[in-house]
């Protein structure tokens, strides 16, 4: 085939270090736009970004020219540095080391968009840890909780 045809939708989830509730209403929209700008500059088209006080969900198209690991490294490093410039409340802002990423079928993109949009409502009933466990189980990913939450 003389060309590369790629369309990889990814639902990415990552948390603040120790799940500190540092993503507050004063910064969340600006943070999500900043993350979207980083992704876009890397050729990874952001579709929906949202989250709650201690974590972020991002639905994006992964560029054919970048690895997931590189995307995550750039997203987390650059946004963490940026957050530290936004005031004293964010001076000790860090992301947790790991992340989770799930492939999304094109026919399920709208479902994921709605899910991300309803994070505040969703987390009034379910903790991030419970949400994360459910994603691991539904995606048949084996994990050891001793290494997930630090």
Automatic annotation (TrEMBL):
* GO terms of molecular function: DNA binding; transposase activity
Q: Which organism is it from?
A: Gelidibacter gilvus
**Transposase IS200-like domain boundaries:** 6-119
The name under which this protein is listed is IS200/IS605 family transposase
Q: Which GO terms describe its biological process?
A: DNA transposition
SUPFAM superfamilies the UniProt entry points to = Transposase IS200-like (SSF143422)
Gene designation? tnpA
């Amino acid at each position: 085939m003389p060309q590369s045809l790629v369309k990889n939708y990814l639902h990415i989830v990552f948390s603040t270090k120790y799940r500190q509730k540092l993503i507050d209403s004063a910064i969340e929209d600006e943070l999500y736009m900043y993350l979207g700008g980083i992704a876009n500059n890397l050729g990874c088209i952001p579709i929906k970004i949202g989250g709650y006080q201690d974590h972020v969900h991002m639905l994006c198209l992964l560029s054919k020219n970048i690895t997931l690991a590189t995307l995550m490294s750039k997203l987390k490093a650059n946004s963490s540095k940026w957050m530290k410039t936004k005031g004293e409340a964010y001076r000790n802002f860090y992301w947790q080391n790991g992340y989770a990423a799930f492939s999304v079928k094109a026919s399920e993109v709208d479902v994921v968009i709605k899910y991300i949009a309803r994070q505040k409502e969703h987390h009034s009933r379910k903790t991030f840890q419970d949400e994360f466990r459910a994603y691991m189980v539904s995606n048949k990913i084996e994990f050891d909780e001793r290494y997930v939450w630090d």
